[in-house]
Design brief:
The protein has about 325 residues and is of the alpha+beta class. The protein contains 9 helices and 12 strands. The strands form 3 sheets. It has a 4-stranded antiparallel beta sheet with strand order 1-2-4-3, covered by helices on one side. The model has no long low-confidence stretch (mean pLDDT about 90).
């Protein structure tokens, strides 16, 4: 199969009202009918048992490999927990060329699922292994990182039920409802007319000081206990209960705080504060209650590598 074009349809389109990935795929003569590929469907189902029916009931036309790719990309998203149901493969006027459309709930997840589906179809064709568990774990993790949070997602769902169009303005939680002079915007559960201070106080009271403290200490301990004593890493903050909560100061001996801060921000977009005092030095790490486990683990990965190997040249 040869993929000549891939684009995201970020709103109602020719095919449906769903956001979708649209691709142009050229299949060889043999790939235009997978029945001619000995054992292909069996190998495909052995690698991905949850894939849908390649041939619809009551139909007898040839099934191209593009159809298998369509169902694989949709199925991988569905198995990863994405609420997707629509896909379609349509032959063009050019022999062996197909338009494939696959719904997505998050564009990054949809694009990655399409890439993994290509690898799956190729592995079935070449009779090589395909790690389904790793693929689904990757998609689940990516979906968790980029999808709307529960509060924003609930508001968007309610808007869709009422027929209100929306547009996600950033990779975060900034969402626009409606168009023109009637548009309104929200970020998380805060509207364009909300008082930011009042919202912050309400959030603090909703979760409670005890839960906030427990969450911050958990996030801090998750990375701090991992890097404590590793390579040249040195913790200046006591992890004992009652001595600190979410903030910690960590030094990598042989690396200046300014250089470490620059590396974390420029290379990995991880924000810290460099502190260079005559009695202690390092970078101050202060996760928010909304910082995800994945983000904390990514910071731990980077810091552990620097502690063991130093900064890259």
């Amino acid at each position: 199969m040869d993929v000549s074009r891939t684009r995201a349809l970020r709103g109602p389109n020719l095919w449906s009202r769903h956001t979708a990935i649209e691709t142009i795929i050229a299949c060889s003569e043999a790939e235009c009918n997978i029945a001619q590929l000995s054992g292909y469907e069996a190998r495909l189902r052995a690698r991905f048992p949850q894939i849908g029916l390649l041939q619809l009931n009551g139909h007898a036309e040839a099934v191209p490999m593009a159809r298998a790719l369509e169902l694989a990309a949709l199925g991988l998203q569905a198995q990863a927990g994405c609420p997707v149901t629509f896909s379609r493969t349509t032959a063009t006027q050019q022999l062996g060329v197909f338009q494939v459309v696959i719904e997505y709930s998050e564009e990054e997840v949809g694009r990655r699922a399409f890439t993994l589906a290509l690898q799956l179809c190729q592995s079935a064709s070449d009779d090589t292994p395909f790690d389904l568990a790793a693929a689904l774990a990757e998609l689940k993790e990516l979906d968790e990182d980029v999808r709307l949070g529960p509060s924003t997602g609930a508001i968007v769902d309610a808007a869709l039920v009422r027929g209100i169009p929306y547009r996600r303005l950033t990779q975060g939680s900034l969402v626009q409802f409606g168009w023109g002079s009637q548009q309104r915007r929200i970020q998380a559960a805060e509207t364009d007319r909300s008082g930011a201070i009042a919202e912050a106080i309400a959030f603090h009271q909703a979760i409670g000081p005890a839960r906030k403290e427990a969450r911050l200490r958990y996030l801090r301990d998750r990375w701090a206990r991992r890097v404590e004593g590793v390579g040249n890493a040195r913790l200046w903050t006591s992890l004992a209960p009652g001595r600190s909560t979410g903030v910690a100061l960590v030094e990598v001996e042989g690396v200046t705080p300014a250089k470490l801060q620059e590396h974390l921000w420029i290379k990995h977009r991880i924000y810290t504060v460099a502190i260079d005092h005559k009695r202690f030095r390092g970078v101050r790490v202060s996760p928010h209650v909304c910082t995800t486990i994945h983000e904390v683990d990514r910071f731990g990965d980077v810091l552990e590598k620097v502690a063991r190997e130093g900064l890259p040249v």
